[in-house]
Amino acid sequence: MSDPKPHILVVEDDVGLAASLVKGLKAAGFRVTLANRGDTAAEAFERDPPDLVVLDLMLPGRSGVSLLEAWRGTSSVPVIVLTARRELDDRLRCFQLGAEDFMPKPFWMEELLARVRARLRQREDAPRRVLTWADVALDLDARRVLRGEEDLGLTRKELDVLAWLAERPGRAVSRGQLAEGALGDPGLNHRTVDGHITRIRSKLGEVAGAHIFTVWGVGYRFEEAL
How crowded is the C-beta side of 13, counted as CA atoms within 13 Å? Predict the structure, then answer.
């Protein structure tokens, strides 16, 4: 049985502060995953998607800014930034990248908990972003594609490509745009993009998969209705 507690991913390389964060969040009733490097944080995010991220900016392996940019390309999970930086430009940069909140160090644990609870309430109250066509539903927040109660098992990259197309109905999207915008790799071989489309169509099935059209010499186009 899955744990019903909200899941918080803490990304912090300071050992003492990280321990305090984990202890405080767990005591408040949250399930907590700790990553003390940027690269392991990215892996933890993919392995077990959190309900909220508490993110330090200065990290070994990969910067917090890089993580925030990557996550905002594929997820709406709330991010609270913790940093010793106090300059206005740093705050503005975080908000421009999509962070929900910003707390300078040092801070009170009670205030952080209050902000965590507030952001989780906002997420629960917000309407879910769900796209439906044919016999399937793409839940953009849960990052799942369902036929009834059945999860069609799309991979992260397949979901990224499908979401990129489905959020731009009626528009021809080039393979290069999918490589850069959906997959984050402008140098990606276009045959790899074609391979993702083939697998997406197969998993969606004949009816729902037919809504993805090949635009010869360009790329692909998604149509909500046929």
Answer: 16
| d(C-alpha 30, C-alpha 23), whole Å | 10
Give the other-Cβ count within 10 Å of 178's Cβ.
23
- Classify residue 183 by its DSSP letter: T
**Structural domains for the chain:** 7-125 (3.40.50.2300), 130-222 (1.10.10.10)
Q: Are 223 and 211 in contact (CB under 8 A)?
A: yes
pTM over 0.70: no
Distance of alpha carbon 169 from alpha carbon 180, whole angstroms = 18
- Give per-residue pLDDT as tens, 88-113: 776 777 777 778 888 888 899 999 99
Angle between helices 64-72 and 38-47 (to 10 degrees): 30
